[in-house]
Amino acid sequence: MKHESAEVSSAAALAWTSLTDREKEFSLSAAAYMCEQASGRLMHLAGVLSALPQLPDANDAGTLDERDLLRRVIGERNLRSSRGGVALPEAAWNVLTCAYLAELEQERLTVKVASLSACVPMTTALRHIALLVNQGLMGRQPYMLDRRVVRLELTENGRALVSNYLQRLARVWGGSGR
Where would I find the H helices in 90-152? Predict the structure, then answer.
């Protein structure tokens, strides 16, 4: 195993030395960009996790009204599916709301980041991104430094859809935002 690892390391070193300075610079800038994106997502996830409300202990009799909680969950799902008669799948909503959050936080959203943020496999994210693009809710923009990377942007319709949903949700939840 150590022998194979040494061979891989020496092959990587040889490959690196065979690159031109321009190729090395591009590789390093692409790696720095990817690290920056990952760091931003991790910071975002840490913030989301720290902002989650603490639910009462389910063993505490009477502290968690499951009926009320279920009514809110059902109401929230009904709000999402009441979009002019066209329901979006759960994964599409996840991608759409991640795009909205990225926009609010002035972050760039890529397909990979959308997949990770929405907690769906890459193939699922791609399928639902295509659905959102076809419905005019999201657009794709190529990334000039790396043509393999596609940036995602909300359209005016996509932005309005999420914004209206959040406003209706705040009314359903009594304006508490929870």
Answer: 90-104, 111-117, 122-134
Instruction: For residue 120, give the 3-state DSSP assignment.
Output: coil
Helix/strand/coil for 67: helix
Q: Which range is least confidently modeled, 35-39, 50-54, 96-100, 152-156?
A: 50-54
Write out the CATH class of domain 87-167: mainly alpha
Q: Quick one: tokens of 159?
A: 């932005």
Contact, 29 vs 145, CB < 8 A?
yes
Query: Using the 8-state DSSP alphabet, how is residue 19 labeled?
Result: S
Span 64-79, pLDDT tens digits = 577 777 777 777 766 6
Residue 26 sits at φ, ψ, to 5 deg, of -65, -45
Tokens of residue 20, six digits: 């031109």
78/75 Cα distance (integer angstroms)? 5
SS3 84: coil
Annotate 20-32 with b (16+ C-beta within 10 A) or e (fewer): eeeeeeeeeeeee
Assigned token pair, 11: 């092959």
Distances (CA, A) of 31 to 26, 57, 93, 146: 8, 44, 30, 11
pTM, two decimal places = 0.57
Pick from 122, 174, 173, 120: which is nearest to 150 by CA?
Answer: 122
Q: Any idea which residue has 């031109």 for tokens?
A: 20
